[in-house]
Amino acid sequence: xKRRMVITGGSxxxxxxxxxxxxxxxxxxxxxxxSTPSPTATVHLDxxxxxxxxxxxxxxxxxxxxxxxxxxxxxxxxxTADGAGHVAAAASTIRLxxxxxxxxxxxxxxxxxxxxxxxxxxxxGAAKAAAETAVRAAAPDSTIVRTSLILGDGNGAHEILTxxxxxxxxxxxxxxxxxxxxxxxxxxxxxxxxxxxxxxHGILNVAGPQAVSRYDLGVLxxxxxxxxxALIPSATLAGLGLRRPADVRLALGRAQKLLSTxxxxxxxxxx
Length: 271
Fold this sequence. Notes:
It is a single chain. By secondary structure, the chain is of the alpha/beta class. It has one domain: Rossmann fold, CATH 3.40.50.720. It has helices spanning 13-24, 50-60, 77-90, 123-138, 157-167, 185-196, 214-224, 237-240, 253-258, 266-269, and strands spanning 4-8, 28-33, 43-44, 64-67, 95-101, 143-147, 150-151, 174-175, 179-180, 183-184, 202-205, 212-213, 234-235. Strands 3-2-1-4-5-6-11 form a seven-stranded parallel beta sheet, with helices on both faces. α4 (123-138) links the parallel β5 and β6. The protein is globular and about 55 Å long.
């Protein structure tokens, strides 16, 4: 009998890959959506509604949940923070893997390991940090996966932004002093699925092993797609006086020991 998995946010960039790859690995998968159904998201679920979450889980009876749903925008506290708590409370007896973010950190020259405490500097990071607290309280046996920029299949937000900046469809710039450790969407999906089949609990960093600036990441995207990197506008957070996390690098030692999933460097998967 197939194990059953529910993936919240099944119509999103990560959710679509989770549904496809979990199905290919033998799970009986159901993806959820908020506004529009899709081939990978067939069950309506508003994670702001605790009663609806309980009803959906009672009907589907999953063995595992991967909570990949995000807020409707980066200022949506009710979905990002409260919604995560509602899911965790309803899943207290179900295996839960919660997707968090490196946005919970302010930035530091040193890498952040799993024991690092959140110190967010903007609203989205604060919401993701609050979500972690809610999940740990309601579902202490869950796994909280902190990750970074997600891309690789052409549908990542950074890939879309790079194309739009080059084409003049978007204003702004990519920052040369904003450092992250990007992860391929399929690598992250495989790691989340692998964790769903284990009893590992606590926080785990899952990102790529290579640190790169957002600007240099845009250059790699442009070259992969045959676009002119010289058309990418660049800037610095410091030069514009922006209060955003600059250097956020997740330490991967625990993940590399625990997971069989190979986490590829960005220079490899954007080659």
